[in-house]
Specification:
alpha+beta, three-stranded antiparallel sheet, 43% strand
């Protein structure tokens, strides 16, 4: 499961949502979804000072995950926002491809950076 934290960023006196960080748990044994999410939520709150309404969560039964970041230009403003995309797959390549496809839904132009990858191999 991956949780992403967001905060507001001002661009010309308009506030937009920007990704400020993430936390992942690569639990191979499942577990209680709510407990795992609560743990991630608590960590993001401590690390970034955001509440649950400023977080998003994703999970998958796939064995691999990749988190990428990119800076999306805000149309009409001299501003870019940091965004994160998460992908899952049966191997690293599938997970990376999934993350890139997720990014390209909202931004096909900017380059990305691989933040981290994780796998469930136990």
């Amino acid at each position: 499961m991956v949780g992403i934290a967001y905060k507001g960023k001002k661009c010309d006196n308009v506030t937009f949502s920007e990704g400020v960080g993430y936390k992942f748990i690569n639990s191979c044994y499942g577990g209680d979804y709510t407990e795992i999410q609560d743990g991630i939520e608590s960590t993001l709150n401590t690390w970034y000072g955001v509440d649950k309404s400023n977080m998003s969560f994703s999970s998958s039964s796939k064995s691999n995950g990749v988190i990428i970041s990119y800076f999306k230009k805000v149309s009409g403003y001299a501003c870019s926002l940091k965004k994160y995309a998460v992908g899952y797959g049966n191997n690293y390549s599938e997970a990376l491809e999934s993350a890139i496809k997720s990014k390209e839904i909202t931004d096909r132009e900017s380059s990305y950076r691989i933040e981290t990858s994780f796998s469930c191999s136990n």
